[in-house]
Task: inverse folding
């Protein structure tokens, strides 16, 4: 299955991705994780990305597109994948469309995890990653609203979006996602 996770920082995409990718035996393609790994390894791409990440800004589209494009070439993506944190801008979405069209592999679903802003703030400040200070978190939420939230329309127009209530415990959210996935699989059979 080819899936994309959509939702603001702190919505729980990372947490839900862990069981979901195991459940479906597909790789987890988190651009945030890939970029942080590149920063740690000190690669050229990582060096270029570091400042943006620290300030809560999006890295330039070319970098995000490059890292995802290369990852999708890996053989384990043939059986499907879960995109987490990509696409985040209109040009990333256009690049993804072109890539998937070339492969003849459209997305099956876009899972839209919905969580109110006060809950997001509380979760992110509790998590305490280096880019989880109040100022940087607020910046990331702003960037999400301005750049990423509008992309939903593109996928809604193709009836690919499944809204999910992201409030409550991780287990409760998991159950909601599992129900959607199982329904989709039953229909596809
Ligand atoms: P969160 O969803 O909590 O912001 P991520 O791990 O998805 O966490 O992203 C962390 C940071 O990595 C972002 O603030 C941004 O700087 C960078 N990043 C991740 N994905 C992308 C992307 N698709 N395009 C541009 N920048 C990205």
Result:
């Amino acid at each position: 299955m080819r899936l994309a996770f959509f939702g603001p920082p702190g919505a729980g995409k990372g947490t839900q991705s862990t069981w979901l990718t195991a459940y479906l035996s597909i790789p987890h393609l988190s651009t945030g994780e890939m970029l942080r790994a590149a920063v740690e390894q000190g690669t050229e791409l990582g060096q270029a990305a570091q400042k943006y990440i620290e300030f809560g800004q999006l890295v330039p589209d070319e970098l995000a597109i490059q890292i995802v494009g290369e990852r999708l070439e890996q053989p384990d993506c043939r059986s499907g994948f879960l995109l987490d944190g990509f696409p985040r801008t209109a040009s990333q979405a256009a690049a993804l469309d072109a890539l998937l069209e070339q492969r003849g592999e459209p997305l099956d679903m876009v899972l839209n995890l919905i969580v109110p802003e006060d809950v997001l703030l509380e979760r992110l400040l509790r998590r305490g990653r280096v880019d989880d200070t109040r100022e940087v978190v607020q910046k990331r939420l702003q960037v999400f609203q301005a750049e990423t939230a509008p992309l939903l329309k593109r996928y809604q127009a193709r009836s690919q979006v499944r809204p999910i209530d992201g409030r409550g415990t991780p287990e409760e959210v998991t159950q909601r996602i599992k129900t959607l996935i199982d329904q989709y699989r039953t229909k596809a059979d």
User: Anything to note?
Assistant: The chain has a mean pLDDT of 96.
